[in-house]
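[Meeting: bench + compute handoff]

Bench side (C.D.) handed over the final construct sequence. Compute side (W.E.) agreed to return the predicted structure before the next meeting so the bench team could plan truncations. Sequence as handed over:
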Amino acid sequence: MDNQPSSFDPLAIVRALNGHGVHYVLIGGIAAGVQGAMWATFDLDVVYERSATNHEVLADALSDLDAVPVDLPAGVTVTLDRRALDSGDVWTLITRWGRLDLMGEPAPGLRYAELISRARWIDGTERYPVASIEDLIAMKSYAGRPKDLGQVELLRAAGDEIAAE
């Protein structure tokens, strides 16, 4: 792969994850957007279950997506297999459908098991879990960058809209 996807297609990435039975929860801008808090985003952020079984199916999905880590020095290759996934927690990847960021724990105490228990399920051409507004706020607050803190206000407004439904 030439490290440049033809276009950003987050649903194609979700389709691959679903097709392999990967246990994951979407976070970040896509998860916020489908819940009403919109901002420009150019990657798909995912928290994945950290288990050997899930790493095995995730590795298969990543292979189908032609995923490779971004910004590797020339001549360095990384095989994204179960062993590699076992040894890492955060992966910044480029796939044939765009950027994919994988995280085991985006904020203290917010791992897959906690996030999936409170996740909201989105049904469309694909069915997928997104982190709750409250969990997204916790992640953005923890990150603490100026852009994250501004996005907290958008998330709060979206949460108010959801509560009013």
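W.E. noted at the follow-up: The helical segments are 10-19, 28-33, 52-64, 82-87, 112-118, 133-143, 146-164. C.D. will use this when planning the next construct.
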